[in-house]
Every structure is written in C-alpha cells, then in structure tokens.
Specification:
2-enoyl-CoA Hydratase, Chain A, domain 1; 3 domains; eight-stranded mixed sheet; 16 helices; 15 strands; 37% helix
C-alpha cells in the first residue's frame, strides 16, 4: 500500500481546491477521463483513456465511488494515459489494490508517469503490441523564495522515493536502482517491461476476424484519438542519439510571403495570370491553397446548462452533410469530404444541442467554454485556431447581448451567397482608379518626369 505523509496529503488537498476554483471561475465542467462497464458481469472493464485528474479532469474520489459499484469477480483496466496528478493517481492505485476483484491492467497505448504507477497496483500487467511504459522523477511548479524552493525540492524527492518503492515492490530491486532509472526518464517496450519485471506478458496481435467488443448502448465513447502533450509533464519522449557530426548551419535568410488571393481578390489574380500568358511567358499551375475549414461564425439560440457531448454527438448521423457539421461543430476536416458529406470523426469541438432527428440547435454555453479550453490541445492546425475562437466567442457574445436567448429561434449557418460577377476590366479600373486621380500625390504626378517628350530630352542634351 502506498502511503502519503500528512504534509503531502494537505498539499494534494490544496491543489484539488485550486483546481475546483479554477474550473468554477472559467465555467468549465470537470471532464470524465474514465469509463466503467459490465460492473456485475464475469469481467468488468475500466478504461483510463486520458490524463489522470489535473486542473480540468475529474478527481479520484469520483472514480473510486464508481469503482465501488463493480461486483464482478474479475476486472480489466485498459490504460492509455500520459500520466497526470500524482496524488489522484496514488489514490486510484490504492483503490485498485483494495478492490476484491482480480485486477488485470492492459496497456493499450501508453502508460507514462503516474499511469505506470497505477499499473503496478494490478494483480497482472499485460502490454499490448507496440505499446510503451515510461517512468521518471516527479516534477512540479513552485513560486517563492529560496526556502520555498528547497521545500519543494525535498517534497519532490520524497514523492519520487515513494514511487520508486512501488516499482521495487512489484519488480524487485532497490529504491536507489529505480531512482536511477527514473532520473534518466526510462522508456520500456513490451518485451523490455516484461524483462524489467514491470509487466507479466507482452501480448500478441489478435487473430484476424476476432470481433471487437461493442460499447453498451447509450454509453458515450471515450476520446481515444486525442494527442497527448507529453512535454506538459516534464519529458520529451525517448532520447535520440546525438549526431556525431553536426549538420552545417543554414545561411540566415528572411522571407516575406503574402497571399495574392487574400490581398487583392481572386479576380485580380486571374487577370494577372492571363496578362502574363498574353506576353508569352510560361504560366505555372496555381498551387492549391490550404482551405480554412473552421465553421463560419453563425448566430443561434444559446443555452447555459451542463454540457454532455456524448449523447448529443451520438444523435448526429455519420456520414453527415457539411451543413450539419458547420451547425454542430467548430471545425471540420475538408480533406475527408466526399460528395458533400464527411464522417463524424472528421469534425472537432462539438458545442450545439442536437435534436432526436439529428438536427443541430442551440449553442450550449458550457460546451462552448469546453471547446475553447480544449482547442490548444486539439488536432486542429494552429493556423486555424483564431478562426475557431471567433466562431466560439460569437456564441458567448450572443449570450451576453441577449436577455432571453431561449426565445431566439436557432438558425443554421447560412451559406455565403456569391457576389455578382464583375467584368475583369471594371475590377482593374476600380483597383487602379486612385493611381490616376489628378491629386498632388497621385501616380500621375509622381511619374510625370518619366514621361517627358523626346524633344525635351534632346534639347537638354544639346544644352
């Protein structure tokens, strides 16, 4: 059993209190990072598929309360986590040790940091093919004077010793030996973990045709596609060997790039291309531009109530139309659109209530805030984050500017209407009109000296 000194326990309690205040301040609901199914069957399944606890995650007491409802004789805990809060993880590990069921931890992706300590609480640890386990020293943040820093250093050493004891209790060896591996941030492939004593078996690839278990009807699926920011926990992944010969330094250069289409409009760009073609110069094929597929800003009714993404997403069809994706999500991947439709997995950051027939409706303000919080860690390209924020912020602004948003009829994002075509000659005339105006600083005045007559030039030379 892993125990915590009273000083650390009080520190953990203060960290949890700060997290709750931070969530309340920003109106963010704690996200559930686990799922428990088949509680009374032969083998219950527990899925830990996210960061453990933390500022935005659910706390260990919620997990432990749900764990008490498991009456199955066997329990399989499937782990794919980069770690998280040390204290929440230790509480979970002790709860698994105390549970009467026979516990098997199955590493599905990664068991890093405190997630590897949770794995040590199992009666049996299995590593699926190509998975990894990582151990490292505890890390944390501290602000204060030198005494505060010394106190934090002492606390982190105490926590790391405590974690090293958990590895030693399962795999053998001494605390100092495991601390050496932790200081070096050690990564284990399945066979390495078995050899080190941290796992019991490196499982093989299942036979082809073996049906996968389906989730219970009505249960939201965990977000298994999320990319973990491992740097947030003080480590950068397996170390790479330094090259023996450093590559030559590239010459420093500065490049200024701008998009003609965005600056002057597509009509002018096309006219310039035709002008170059008329002069006999080769015309390169236009390079496709990266399309910004952030859903356009639209104004709908808003509802300020708890947000449950799972049931709302489940009511959406897959594939869905682009119009439906724009009405329910903040972003979608246009590269996956075929014949005007795209799979549900290609859209990100849902925040609209969805009716029983799959029609997006009012924007849920809690869902909007949740999407804003998740945006920095999402798979959405950074170049499109600003457009996504504008979309989400518009809903929050609508709620502030409307006394009773519940009476506002939801409206879908209107498709932009194409403006009437204008002849290319008129477009060019509009663009260069200011260059020929008879003003003191006009183009004509500035270039007048370049167009003097030949006779004037001859007269000058004769003089």
């Amino acid at each position: 059993m892993i125990t915590l000194p009273s000083k650390i326990a009080s520190f953990a309690a203060s960290q949890r209190e700060k997290a709750e205040k931070l969530r309340a301040q920003h109106g963010i609901k704690a996200q559930s990072w686990y799922r428990i199914t088949n509680q009374a069957d032969d083998e219950a399944e527990v899925m830990l598929y996210d960061e453990i606890g933390g500022w935005l995650g659910a706390t260990a007491d919620e997990f432990i309360a749900d764990l008490k409802g498991v009456t199955a004789p066997r329990m399989r805990v499937r782990v794919n986590s980069p770690g998280g809060s040390v204290f929440e993880g230790i509480a979970i590990a002790n709860a698994l040790r105390a549970h009467p069921a026979n516990v098997t931890v199955q590493v599905d992706g990664i068991a890093a940091s405190i997630a590897s300590v949770i794995a040590m609480a199992a009666d049996r640890v299995e590593m699926a093919p190509n998975t990894m386990m990582m151990i490292h020293d505890a890390s944390g943040l501290c602000m204060g004077n030198a005494a505060d820093m010394e106190e934090m250093a002492e606390l982190l050493d105490l926590i790391s010793d405590n974690i090293a004891d958990a590895y030693a209790a399962r795999a053998g060896g001494t605390r100092d030996q495991w601390r050496d591996l932790m200081r070096n941030e050690t990564w284990f492939l399945p066979e390495d973990a078995v050899k080190a004593g941290l796992a019991d078996e490196a499982t093989q690839v299942p036979k082809q045709g073996t049906p996968a278990s389906e989730p219970d009807e009505g249960e939201p699926e965990p977000e298994m596609h999320r990319r973990f920011d491992l740097a947030a926990y003080g480590y950068q992944g397996p170390r790479q060997e330094a090259p023996t010969t450093p590559p030559p330094a590239a010459p420093e250069q500065v490049t200024l790039t701008f998009n003609l289409g965005e600056t002057f409009g597509p009509e002018l760009v096309e006219m310039l291309r035709k002008t170059v073609a008329r002069r006999g110069e080769p015309v390169a094929e236009p390079v496709p531009e990266v399309v910004d597929t952030a859903s356009p800003v639209h104004h709908t009714a808003t509802e300020d109530r708890p947000w449950d993404a799972g049931p709302n997403e489940k009511r959406l069809p897959s594939p869905m139309t682009v119009k439906t994706a724009k009405g329910a999500y903040a972003w979608y991947d246009e590269s996956q659109v075929e014949d005007g439709e795209l799979p549900k997995s290609a859209a990100k950051l849902p925040h609209h209530e969805v009716s029983a027939d799959g029609t997006p409706g009012a924007a849920n303000l809690s869902g909007v805030r949740n999407a804003l919080a998740r945006l920095p860690q999402s798979e959405i390209p950074a170049s499109q984050h600003d457009a996504v924020r504008r979309h989400l912020q518009a809903h929050l602004d609508d709620a502030k500017n409307t006394d009773n948003t519940a009476d506002v009829e939801p409206t879908a994002a209107a498709d932009p209407q194409p403006e009437p075509e204008q002849p290319a000659e008129d477009v060019w005339a509009d663009i260069v009109a200011h260059l020929t105006e008879p003003a003191p600083n006009s183009w004509t005045a500035l270039t007048h000296h370049l167009f003097t007559t030949a006779s004037s030039s001859a007269a000058t030379e004769a003089a």
